Structures are given as C-alpha cells and as structure tokens.
Amino acid sequence: MMFGTVTVFDRRLIENFDWGLMSITSMIGLLGLGVLYSAVNAGDPGGAMHALFQKQIIWIAGSFVIVLVSISIPYKLFDRGSFIFYIICIGLLVAVLLFGKHVAGARRWLALGPITMQPSELMKLSLIFALASVYSNTVSESGIPFRHLIKPALLLLLPFTLIALQPDLGTALLLLFIAASMTLFVKVKKSVFFSCVIAALSAVPIAWMFLLKDYQKGRVLTFLNPDRDPLGAGYHIIQSKIAIGSGMVSGKGFLKGTQNALAFLPEQHTDFILSVLAEEWGLIGCCVLLFLYFMLLLWGLNISYCCRDMFGSILAFGVTIMIFWQIFINIGMVMGLMPVVGVPLPLVSYGGSSVVTNMIGIGVLLNISMRRFVMV
Amino acid sequence: MKNPERDWLKKRLMNTAIIILAAFALLLLRFVYLQVVEGDEYRRLSKNNCIRLQSIPAPRGMIYDRNGTLLVDNIPSFDLKITLQDADPLNDTIDKLADFTSIPIEELMERVDAGKRVSIYKPLLLKRNITRDQLAVVEAHGFDLPGVKVDVEPMRNYIYKKSAAHVIGYLGEVNLQEIENNTYTDVRAGDSIGRYGAEKAFEDILRGKRGGRQIEVDASGRLVRVINTVEPIPGKNILLTIDATLQQKTEEIMEQYTGAVVAIDPSNGDVLTMVSSPSFDLNDFIGGISSEKWKALISNPDKPMANKAIQGEYPPASTYKIITAIAALEDGVVDINTTHFCPGFYKYGNREYRCWKKSGHGRVNIIKALEKSCDVYFYKVGESLGVDTLAKYAVGSGLGKLTQIELANERPGLVPTAAWKKRRFGTPWQGGETLSIAIGQGFNLATPLQMAVLISAVGNNGTIYRPRILKSIQDYNEPIDVSKNLHSEILGGLPASNQTLKLVKEGLLNVVESEGGTARLVRIKGVDIAGKTGTAQVFSLKKSDRDSKRKFARHLRDHAWFVCYAPAQSPMIAVATIIEHGEHGSTAAAPVASEVIRTWLELKGIIPKAQ
Fold this sequence. Notes:
heterodimer; A: 376 residues; mainly alpha; three-stranded antiparallel β-sheet; 15 helices; disordered N terminus; B: 611 residues; Penicillin-binding protein 2a (Domain 2); Beta-lactamase; 3 domains; six-stranded mixed β-sheet; five-stranded antiparallel β-sheet; 36% helix
C-alpha cells in the first residue's frame, strides 16, 4: 500500500500535470478578484484595500496550498475515505443545527475558532465522493436496478433534510440536482427512471394539499416567483436586472458601475456579484466569463473521459456537474430566470467555504487528470 | 476493478456536453436580451437609480379604556425629509432649508451626517412633525430645495394628555443596538417603539407590519409611477382595564398630593384606576422630548416619571396588621377570645414600644385591635410569631415579590427575614425588630399595587389574582367590542382559612363602620366599606418630639396609607392609597380612597349620584 503511494509519485506525474485546467482556473479566479475588488470598493474609490478583498485573496492562496497537497494523494484513496468524509460532514451539519450561528433567520454557519464555515458547502463534495464510490461498484451497461438505488437515495436524503432544516432550500436543491445528474449519468433502468419521475410528480400535489401550511406555501410561491415579494427578493431581482442591462454591450467601465456603487444589492459581493461584472464590463465581459466557464466544464468532462477507472470517471463527472449547476443556478437567478436562492458563483463570489470547496473540486480534477496514464 | 466501456462513456459525456452547451446558450440569450434589446431602457433606469423602495408605515393600534373610550389614536405628522442623492448641491440646500424653516442648521447637519452613513438613496428624516408654517414655506420653495420633501406619517395623539400617563406610556426612537440585536421584528432605524407603560408592554400587539412600494422617480427625485405596492397591516387595538372617568376623577383628587392610588376589581384583578402623582404630559414625548422638559422631569424631587403605584416602595405600616392578624390566627397564637391589655406602650427588654394612642386601648381582642389599630396587641402577637413566620405569611399574601402586572420595572418590595438581615448587614436579628415588623415598620416595604392585590384578595375571600391592565385585544378592522375579556389569571390564595378571613374582615369593616374605627369619618351612605389605615414613619422621632412634629419639614412627615374594599359584603372595588408625607392614614389617605369608591359605585349605579 505505502509502497504504491510512493512509487506513483514519480516524474511522470509532474510531466502530466494539467497546466490547461490550471490556467483556466487561474483566469477565472483573477477575473473574479477584479470584479470583487470593484464590488467591495463600491462607492468608495481610492479607499484602502477592503478587508473582504484581502480575506478572499487569503482564501484563494490557502486553497492553492490545499490543492497542491491533495493532488499528491492518489485519488483512489478517496474511494475508501469517502465514507469517513461523509460521516464528518453529516456531523458538521448536525452541529450547525445545534450550535450554528443565526444569521437572517437561518442557521448555516459554524464558528470554528476564528473562522466561520458553511458545512453545507463541503457536503456537496462529500456527497459526490460517496456517490462516485457507490456507483462505481454498481454501474452496469443495462442500467442500475431499483435495489441498487436505495443506498444512494439514503446518502442524498440525510444531508438534504439536514440542510433543508437550516433552512437553506437552495443548497438542498443543489444537492438533489447533483445527485440526480450523477444517477442519470451512470444510467438507471428505464422502468426505474419513469417510476421515479411519476412518483416525484405525484408527490408534489399531495405535499401541497396536505403537508404544507399556508405560510410555507407562501414561502414556496415567493421562492418560485420573487414578484410576490416586491420589497424583498423581487426588488433585488429588479435592481440586479437594471445593473446587468445597463451594462449594455461594452459596460460602464471598471469601478464605474452606478448600481453597484449604490449598494442596492445586499449580496453584491457574494450571490449577486455577476451583476457587478455585467454592469461594468457589459456583454463582452459576460461572454468572456461564460466562455471560460464553458472551457472549464468541457475540460472536466474530458478528464472524466480520459480516466481509466470507473470511480475516477464518475468522480470527475460529479465535480464538473457540481460546478455547472452552481454556475447555471447563480447566473439564472441574477437575471431573473430562477428563484432567488443562496448559490454562489464558483471561483468568483466572495466566501471562504465556497472558494475552498470549488478549489478542492478543481484539485480532484487535477488529481485524476495527472494520473490518467498511471497503470491501475 | 473493471475498465469503463469507452464508447458508452463517450456517448454519455457527449450528451452532457450538449446539455451544458444548451444551458449556456440560454444564459447567453438572456444576457443579449437584457443588455442589447432592453439595454437602453435599463441604462436609463440606472442613471438616477430610478427604481426605489418607499416604506409605508403601519398605523399603530389604538388604545381604549374598558368602556371603549378612545385614549390614544394617531394623527398625521408632517415629517421633513431629504434624499441626499437628489439634494444637489447639498450644503446650499441645507442652508436654504434652515433659513426657510428656522430650524437650527446644526440640528439639520447632525441628522445629515448620521444619514450619510446609512444610505444616500433613502429619504432621511430631518425633523418630525413640523408646523403648518414650516410646511407651507417648504412646499412653496419646492424647486429651491431639491431632494427635500414632507411625508405625512401617523403620529401618536394622547387625547387626555396627563391622564393615565404612567399606565399608557409613550414611544421613543429605536436605537442602533436594538436594531443590531433584532430586539423587535420588522423595525428599522427611525421607527418609534413603546418605551413606557402599555405602549411598551404591548409593543408587539400595537405595532403593525410596515408595507412599502416600489416606485420610479425622475432625476430630481419626483415620483413618476408606482410599480408595486404592499399594503401595511395596522397594529391591533387594545382595551385597557382602566375606566377613564374613574381615572380622571382620581387624578383630580390626587392633583394636590404626591403619592399613588390603585383600584382593582376584586373579582378578576382588573386594574380600574392607577394614578401616580405628580404625572407628566404624554404629548411632550411625541417626536422626542426636549432636553429642558426632560431635565425638569427627572430633577423634580417628587419623581413624576416614576409610577409610584408599582415602583414606590413604602413601609406598609398598620396596613400590614392584616398580615400579622392572618398569621396570628392561622398559627394559633390567638383566637377570637384572646385579649391583650394595651396601656399605651409595651415594654420589651429595656425599651418601651409605644402604641400610637398614648392613653392606650385597654383590653382588646383581634377584631378590636384591627378596628382601633392597636400597636401593643400586634407587638405581643408579633413577638409570639417571630419574624420568619410573619415573613412566610407576608410572602404567601403576595408581598416581597412582583405582582406580575404587565408593566415594566415593577419593584418587589421587601419582606425581611432573619437570614436576609444576616446576609444584608452581617448582624443577627434583634427581637425588638420583630415588634416593628409586626406593625409594618422597620425593613418592611410594599408597593401600593401589592397592597391593592392583598386587600382585594381579603375582600374576595382569599383569591390572589394577577393584576392586569389589558382587558382585550381587538383586530384593527373590527368594531370595538367591550364585552370581550382576556381570561384572568389566579396566582394563588391567601394563606388563610375562611374562619380567619371572616374575623379579619369583621375587624376591617369596623375600621370604617364602627364608632371606634380609625376611618369612621369616610363612610359612604348606603355602602359598607372595609379597610385599614396606616401611618408610615419616614423619620424616627424621639418621644419628646412626637407631639411637636407639625413643625417638621414636609419631607420628614409620615406617609399616609389606606387600603379598603367595598361594598364589604360583595366587593366590587378594592383600593390602595398612599399619600406621601400625608401624615395620617385616616385623615389624608382614607378620604381619597373613599372618593374613588364613591365614584365607582356611582358609575356602576350602586348608589345614586351625589347632587
């Protein structure tokens, strides 16, 4: 075992290091820092370097160290370690519900000494590891039968419930999307697929009529249609759309965004950071970001293809699809295409837990990529 | 481990790539739509940050008395506001504004500087409730004052000014710390919340839920159109248990005194009137009290800001003999046949404890002792009972602890025990001190409300109700229904048997209705009153000074107590009165209480109206 770990760390690993993925990631990260600089210095040009900006740099630098350390561990060990990782994350989620910090009516943050973390972020990775581990043993060309789906379903349901209780419906749904995508990816039997769809569709009206109380229905309706809350979410969406639209094709220029400067958006440096980019850099800036993201995702899928073992392939797919869903939900949300949920824009939004989680994801991709020629 | 099937994997990954491509194409289309197709419109809207939120305050619930008489409502207040973003040039505008309205420029700038830290796009309150003249001049010079506007917002109006000020209470602006701690839901900077009395106690009932509208404004901040509105939800109305007529009549009587009166309905704990004198004008607190007025209030030695009915702690004096009598009967120290001889003093150790009546009361039993308030009788039973037994009965009767009325800052009074004294002063209890306690002097302290609850419980045969000032809560959109009542709460019972209470009540009835009673001068024709007088020593007087104390300054004179209920057979009202430095319970306090009873029974139609 130990012998193997040492031998795989040979010169070929360094030769095979995925510089392409590294450069795309770095470009997105740098672009993100530029936008963040503008977002946190809004209305105060020439001010000292903002504390949030400095913190973000520290998070990103720290994440690079974590990535470099983690890629020296062969990802095959993650297969066995996935269960322990999963248990730890569940423990953290329970701790959040018990001792978490109350912010704006939800318990999402856990204070660990000087830093506060959001365990639901790490949970995404942990679920991907666990599902990759389970599916790599049950995958079959004809599709996975129903009995093999019970374990993955339980693996999803536990963290889903814990996160929904916080309540953080956005992250809970993100877990569902990731798990569903991975399940569809490894292929289930057609009959299983259709019965799941029918079961889900019939559960909705039953829950609506018998389980949800009126105020909960109101919350769900507002979630689906922000216009129902014109003084809260609805107002944020309007301001976000004005910011994006007013950027027009070429943008208003770096640090010149007026909507941004007004601090109209309470989350302009986190969930709504895209509106800052769109206002200051216009359609051109948005296209550049979309292109970089698209390259990143294709690169991830390619890593999944090049990998020689099932665990690695599914894992690479899982990480890629996690990044995709975050991008799609976040951008859709700020443009008023989706409900307002607290999903950050990967590698761009401010936030330690989000940065670390996505960077570990990139680290996993690098890890799989550089071992693509290693004999298993 | 098996190798993945390459083609199988490739096909699934290709499908994924196509889905991702489609998703990104959708996002790109949306960008193009917002930034190219609608770009001009959004650029225009962003120019002046045209889309703004405007808050619509929710009217606060009204306050009524128990009969539905309106005590507090809302009237429009003209609030001077400025939106800093639109006020260009700012300093020039402020200069002009100060000039037009004669509001000191420093006052305006102080507000502006504070507002800059919050938001320059939200209207900032400069001055609440400006005068009609100021309003006229601001409206007339609208074009010289960019960003300045006058909003009409609801403001509290206390219809009877000083009446029931301590019960109704007032509002004050919420502070930064309360906003940060989320002390109140749905409250923001600039909002007013209850700070005193019912306004404070029932804050969450009275406060409504604010609404708001999304509006579009033009370059100078003028409204172009309303995009969306959320209507505010007004607060709920409340009915207090006090009776406005009785309250005002009592205040009229108390005008000349410093002290407090509390009247309770013995059948449910409703506070019918609660007067603390001197009082203050609630309307002075609207929009913030001026510092001169505030200084005058808090430097007044008669403490108008304190609600003496729940915060004034006085030695209960002879009214405490009710407790001593209950304890003595219950503990078997005396019965109806036990008599003690009062020669006018009681020698304990080498000290002489005096009866208030120098010549003595002769031989008295418990009923006579209460009727004549014989100190010697109670010295003797107090000595037999001991301080801790007395304390047990006092606490059981509701003294030394909060009555749990809804109002804030209630004081618990004090029921001393030997252990308490050891803890407090480090010295052991002296036997002589028990004698003082037995007649309500010494360390004993009670609030008028506690005494009112006690006498009310004696009157209703032993039930201690939680005193309350909230009669009912009513929805803002429903007509006032005076028949609605919240459930009254029973806190416990007096530690006294029916037989004990019967004797005590007989003694209390004699206090007023017998020829030898200490309060015989306050009888009301057609109604029996039962009560107990008390004279609380403020200052320990030497024997030789006693007779000449009229010469003493007012602040050294004794406090006068009277606690009573009527009609004695089935009480409808129980009253506790304290007149600070009124000297004698029988001459100062009892007439006040008697007037309160007369007024109430007249209102209730039990006795015919005088005149």
